[in-house]
Amino acid sequence: MAQQQPAQPEGETSGGVLGVFEWLGTHFIGLFNESGEQFVGLITGILPTLIVLLTFMYALTTFIGEQRVTRAVQWSARWWITRYTVMPIIAVLMLTNPMCYSFGRFLPERHKPAFYDSAVSFVHPVTTFFPYANAGELFVWLGIANGVTQLGESTVPLALRYFLVGILVIFIRGIVTEKITAFMIKRTGRTEVFADFDREFEAAKAGGR
Questions:
Q1: What is the mean pLDDT of residues 36-57?
Q2: Are 53 and 129 in contact (CB under 8 A)?
Q3: Which residues cross the membrane (predicted)?
């Protein structure tokens, strides 16, 4: 009588080439199973919040009026202290990433690099309280808050600090980039070119009134 072969222990794969294919098949479908679980978690977790927040901001913009929002942006563009704090915050909240950078049209050419630097640096801190503004990169904030969540603590104090530090950082970056831009304009001998840009900007702004 032939000896009965011992059964293969559960969870183990065959050896050789067949074992390699078994391992690949198991982990290939496992990847999609985990992705499906993550997707279900998003549907029952953050996605409803994103949709409601986005709808609220669109409704608020409609209620306030696009012209009033535009005037608020133009007002904040006048002074450096609001140009790199209030202006990028309004831009990111109202238009979200990446359309927020289009608010640079309210600035002369020499200030556009600094505004972009401020706005692009705020698309991560904004996700703490307004995740809809940059939902594609929400994992940055969630990764930071994960440790606090595992400890069973509230993430609100951390979110507030993250948000406020973000405002400070974009202000510093805006000022520094504006100074660097002015230095490079002067160093490369393009002072008159940007002076022409400034005159064209003022003429266009006067015509828009």
A1: 66
A2: no
A3: 39-60, 81-104, 159-176
